Known about the structure:
The protein is mostly helical. The chain has one domain. The protein is 68% helix and 0% strand. Helix 1 runs antiparallel to helix 5, helix 6 runs antiparallel to helix 14 and helix 7 packs parallel to helix 14. The termini are far apart. The relative contact order is 0.09.
Amino acid sequence: MFKITGYVTVVSLLKLNLQQIFRYRIQNKFYKYHIINILINKTQNKALILLVLFAVSLVVPAQLYHNHSYNNFIIFRSSFSHLLHGMNLYGYFPKEYNDIYLYSPAFAVLMAPFSYIPIWAGLYLWTVISCALIYVSIIQLPGLDMPKLTAVFFIILLELITSLQNMQTNAIIAAFMVLAFISFEQKKVFFAAFFIVFAAYIKLFGLAAAMLFLLYPGRGKFVAYMFFWGLVFTILPLIIVPVNQLIIQYQNWFHQMLDVHHGEDTMLFPNVAAPLSVMAWLRIWFGLKTNGIYIQLCGLILLVLPLLRINQYKNPVFRYFLISSILIFCVIFNHIAESPSYIIAVFGVALWFVNEEKAPFAWILFVLACIFTILSATSFFPEYVRHSYAIPKVWKVVPCIFIWIWIQAKLLFGKNFGKSLIPSHYN
Length: 427
């Protein structure tokens, strides 16, 4: 009996082991196929994004060159020559272009390559650089799977095209601010400081991303690197101009910024007829006429208040919400925000939405942003509606204001920030 029982037991164990091995091989094979399928889908999504960006890089410059619609690019291109010949960067040059130069002397130096190549080639180069930076800033976002990265891209696509069609720097600034966030996440504070300073020397509000450093280790190093890169960009023009001329250029830049802010605040000499900002919304919708600096100061206080929640610093969704808030803040509280500026704000909206728990109210806010922020400047709305209502009533800014308030409420009072939305190993 014992032998038979033992034999049966051994056979049973063998059968069980064979079944387990077979099941394991089946599961392992399925797992391998699943991994391969994921890799294929990921590659296809990346290829799709690259294909769309390639099409944009081909079509937009050709359209601009054909229509002779590249005034902003001429401003950028001419700045290097003006700096090189000791001219006031911030003066008026009506024979060369409309409008005025608003960027740093360092930015003028970086325009050197564009000043020596044909205009058509410069338009293509500018567009390719902008698209490449946007692609890298999306693909490297940590903790998000490929469907979410693809969603971010298609949410910002129309705003990217709008910015490029106006030959603006905003796509580059948006990419730099997001790349600074990515660098912080990767514990590369040297590069985080580089991207922030670079953005700030194009448009000063890029400095807002520096507040992220409080969320990460290496704060002392970051401050040192900020001083380093600040010095590099400040003295960069010395390679082509003497010190006394550079000091004058920085003085002129300072006064130019004050004049633009004063012109918008008083509406005596506005740089933008209807700025797409909180200040303009309050004035146009509610008749509130007050110094814009007070509204901006209130916004800044609300922006930094979540930093008091030190216990949330390790929460990745909290950090994503904070960079989203910063990106939106930089536009809606900007006294000269224009439609092409909204690539920055909508990038923030996209990062918020893919990390947000999809509550009904969040969906409503997102749909409103798609309709009134992203589509309000397109032929989705009839021309009469755009010119009679959407533009003068600053529809574009309104959903972003409410999304920003929603994000701030989450940052200040939220408890879990949708922990299931980002893999638990990401920290």
